[in-house]
Specification:
Blueprint: E1 4-9, H1 18-30, E2 36-40, E3 43-44, E4 58-60, E5 63-64, H2 70-85, E6 90-94, E7 108-112, H3 126-135, E8 141-144, H4 147-155, E9 162-164, H5 181-185, E10 193-196, H6 206-213, E11 222-226, H7 232-241, E12 248-252, H8 259-264, E13 268-271, H9 280-287, E14 292-295, H10 300-303, E15 310-313, H11 318-330, H12 332-349, H13 352-368, E16 379-380, E17 389-390
Parallel strand pairs: 1-2, 1-6, 2-4, 3-5, 6-7, 7-8, 8-9, 10-11, 10-13, 11-12, 13-14, 14-15
Antiparallel strand pairs: 16-17
């Protein structure tokens, strides 16, 4: 109960997204095991803060200029003043954007990289790779929600302690049950509803999914899409060409508060991703007792067991995805068995108390280390604004 934690995040409610949801839930789950938990979420100077249904720890929203170099300088100045007034033991950074601002601060730095976009940095220029490696120099510990993201940190030269800790899910909010939405949507109880709960962006494989459902019998299912993004128009074109628009409901962006009812209105949930960390929407679907059809990428195979809690297919193969969907549509017993197993696995392995327990273990390891300020790459950072210096220089 003696550990003091400051979570620094690039997204937070009322923002909609995986990082926002993760940090919000993690903060609440950490609170019983810590002396204090606070959240820092930088925002543009003068930006209005929208109303949110979120409740949780103390949240600070310092105003910063979003452009560089002002963002890092202003955020670091604010953090240094904050820590001088009220020191913390652990500064846990979520997302790449604010990481550089924590260099040299008087707290042990843990970094969770949530974005599969981090993997793209491995394919960029040597100069950008060096800049990314520089970001990790002062980290005392790196957490990745998938083994792939942990390996990416290693590929940049990070040599310090690291762990794979997946995303979590609130198994009390997200649980099986009835939903009023089917009636509102005009969908009969005996119709099969396939749910795509994703941002409609290229890396989520949403156009491949649209290509898969066009291979199905159009009378065998209804399609619900909870999410929005630049790929929406492409999906509409594919579904229109397949005469499926009249069997498809686009909900647009849906708040996390509303999502339990959306999952409960479905029979099957899908993760057609081309790149993925640990899918929060996949965990939410599992907690609601839905069988998943997902791709073998990133952290998806880590959350679902093929043939036990869902069906895995290769990414970018609409015909394989269609075959898996066709099987679940036609076999009600299989849907029930996989859905029940998915719920059990979510409760046992991915509940937020379990994720918080594993995260607190990382914090304790950091506290036990002899040298603070993250020296994973052989650098030491002081509390001034000077650059880190090589220990072996």
């Amino acid at each position: 109960m003696d550990i003091r934690i400051l979570l620094l995040t690039s997204e937070y409610p009322p923002d909609v997204g995986g990082i926002a949801s993760h940090v919000s839930e993690l903060a609440k789950a950490l609170a019983p095991g810590a002396a204090s938990v606070e959240v820092v979420h930088p925002r543009s100077i003068g930006a209005a803060i929208q109303a949110s249904d979120h409740t949780g720890p103390c949240v600070h929203r310092p105003g910063v200029v979003k452009g560089e170099p002002f963002y890092q300088a202003m955020l670091r100045w604010w953090l240094a003043r904050k820590l001088a007034r009220r020191p913390v033991d652990i500064l846990h950074v979520h997302g790449v954007r604010p990481l550089a601002a924590t260099r040299g601060l008087a707290a042990r730095t843990v970094f969770t990289n949530h974005s599969s976009g981090f993997l793209a940095r491995l394919r960029t220029s040597p100069a950008r790779k060096r800049r990314t490696a520089r970001l990790l120099e002062h980290c005392d510990y790196v957490i990745g929600p998938s083994d792939e993201l942990v390996d990416a940190a290693r590929a940049f030269g990070y040599l310090g302690p690291a762990a794979m800790i997946p995303n979590g899910v609130d198994v009390e909010r997200f649980r099986p049950g009835a939903s009023p939405l089917r009636r509102e949507w005009g969908i009969e109880q005996d119709e099969i509803v396939i749910l795509l709960a994703r941002r409609l962006v290229e890396k989520n494989g949403v156009t491949n999914f649209a290509g898969a459902v066009r291979l199905l019998d159009p009378k065998s299912f209804r399609l619900v899409i909870a999410g929005d993004g630049p790929e929406r128009s492409k999906m509409i074109a594919i579904l229109s060409d397949a005469h499926l628009l009249d069997r498809t409901r686009f909900l647009g962006a849906v708040s996390n508060f509303e999502m339990p009812a959306v999952y409960r209105a479905a029979d099957i949930s899908v993760l057609p991703s081309l790149a993925e960390a640990t899918s929060i929407s996949g965990l939410e679907a599992m907690a609601c007792g839905l069988p998943l059809v997902g791709t073998r990428v990133g952290g998806i195979p880590a959350i679902m067991a093929d043939g036990e809690t869902g069906l895995l297919v290769e990414p970018g193969h609409p015909e394989q995805f269609a075959a898996a969907l066709r099987r679940l549509i036609s076999e009600s017993g299989l849907r029930a068995r996989l859905g029940a197993a998915a719920r059990t696995r979510a409760e046992q392995e991915f509940s937020w108390p379990e994720i918080a327990r594993r995260t607190l273990h990382v914090y304790r390891e950091c506290q036990a280390r002899a040298v603070p300020s993250g020296n994973a790459l052989g650098y030491v950072a002081d509390s001034s604004t000077k650059s880190a210096e090589r220990l072996d220089a």
